[in-house]
Amino acid sequence: MEKEGRPLFGGKMAKIFIIDVTNRDGVQTAKLGLAKLEKTLLNIYLDKMGIFQSEFGFPLTNHEKAYLNANLQLVKAGALKKIRLEGWIRAVPEDVECTFRNVPEIKHLNVSISTSRQMIENKFQGKFGEKDVIEMMKKSVILAKKLGAESVGVNAEDASRTEMGFLKAFSLAAKAAGADRIRYCDTLGYDDPFTIYDRIYELAKTVSIPIETHCHNDLGMAVANSIAGAKAAVDAGCDAYINTTVNGMGERAGNADLLSVILAIQKSSGFGGKYRLGGKINLKRSWKLAQYASYCFGVPIPINQPGTGGNAFSHESGIHADGALKDRRNYELYDYEELGRGGQEVIETGRQIIVGEYSGIKGFRNVYDKLEVKFKDQNEAKKILELVRYANVHTQKPLISDELRFIAKYPDIAKEIMTVTPQW
Fold it and tell me: Residues near 127 by Cβ (< 8 Å), separated by ≥ 6?
């Protein structure tokens, strides 16, 4: 499937970067969602894991504004050290203007518009044609850069069902307008690893711009399609970006699972040692990240989930158990310790003191004493207690220790994150 090896991009070997979209696409999982505090902690965990960028929300959505601005404050405060925070909007100039009114300090955007004939004809219903689609996209990119965006990705929604000639013309126009990359959206999970490789290779060769894959899992191929598309971009000499979500959360059958994508690039026979991830990924953060997302969404991790499933390192049959005991490499491709697994999990079965929306100061102090968090005086403790009460109302579930520590360390930012004011 490889065309011509892996040429250089801009004088350097092309790399693959991860853009996690849990906080934008993952939260669109029907019947589920995340509180703003939970989205914030996910950004912190993704940052510690070494993920390049988080698509952290919708700048046009009023109930997102406080959370988005507060997370950009966390960048200034050093709580988010390396990860870039990027917003998602429609490729409409009015949306770009509104974005910078709502979130003035945002620096990274992805602007999206449909490109397939199916969607242009049946979603826009005659309001826009192909020329209109290109013009709106160009105006949006130019305006975003003018208003202060440092990077702009252009999304071709339903790219996998878009006629190749138009997809090339659309992408060339985006590049000319100043776009930094093209997001190839397999919106319906329609591609397979062979078609997406051929299409992205041809697109990257024509446009010579980084290509981003956004794959849905309707046919169970989101991870395979994501890495095949990234391979095509790199083989064509361009950097590649892969969209992922934690535990594969997302609309309908979900998106490409973050850990599965990373493991496939680092461990599979055709990728390991041959294709490089941009940035330094700390896989030891995988287990905690997956467990936290599972808790927040209220969705158990499947027992057979790669890396983090309950059976990912379990052996029962005689031949497998015997082989694994002799040498784990007989039946395990990678070590569970690499993912941050292996520690004992302690579950309290006796008396528990937890902090909830109706907690008092004594129970609150008991919980924070166990976390070794100290307060300078009683007034500070009461202030944090009030925030913790609101956080329990906000999340509608008991707070984990990292959430409690975050609120104590960044009380003003935590308050803004949890602030939702209806716009009339």
Answer: none
By DSSP bridging, strand 240-244 and strand 16-20 are parallel
Alpha carbons 241 and 151: distance in angstroms, whole number: 13
Q: Quick one: average pLDDT of 113-139?
A: 93
**pLDDT tier, 351 (very low <50, low <70, confident <90, very high otherwise):** confident
> Does residue 324 register a pLDDT over 80?
no
pLDDT confidence of residue 219: 98
Q: Give the integer Cα–Cα distance in Å for 377 and 227.
A: 53
> Which residues touch 192 (CB under 8 Å, ≥6 apart)?
219, 221, 224, 225
Residue 257 has what DSSP assignment? B
Question: Is 179:149 a contact under the CB 8 Å cutoff?
Answer: no
Residues 380-421: tens digit of each pLDDT = 999 999 999 999 999 999 999 999 999 999 999 999 999 988
DSSP state letters, 142-203: HHHHHTT-SEEEEEEETGGGS-HHHHHHHHHHHHHHT-SEEEEEETTS---HHHHHHHHHHH
Q: What is the overall mean pLDDT for the chain? A: 93
DSSP conformation class of 20 = E
Query: What single-letter DSSP state applies at residue 284?
Result: G
CATH 2.40.50.140 fits 8-289, yes or no: no
Measured CA to CA, the distance from residue 190 to residue 221 in angstroms comes to: 9
Rounded to whole angstroms, the maximal C-alpha distance in the chain is 68
Q: What is the pLDDT of residues 27-40, one digit of tens each?
A: 999 999 999 999 99
Q: Where are the alpha helices (DSSP H) in 254-410?
A: 258-267, 286-297, 318-326, 361-370, 378-395, 401-409
Give the whole-number percent of the chain exceeding pLDDT 90.
82
Q: What angle do CA 347, 352, 356 make, to 5 degrees?
A: 110
Judged on CB neighbours under 10 Å (0-12, 13-18, 19+), 168 is middle
What confidence tier does 110 reach under pLDDT thresholds 50, 70, 90?
A: very high
- For 33, list phi and psi in degrees, rounded to 5: 175, 180
- Provide the pLDDT for residue 346: 73
Tokens 């969602």 belong to residue: 33
Residue boundaries of the structural domains of the chain: 8-289, 316-345, 346-410
Whether 283 shows a pLDDT value over 80: the answer reads: yes
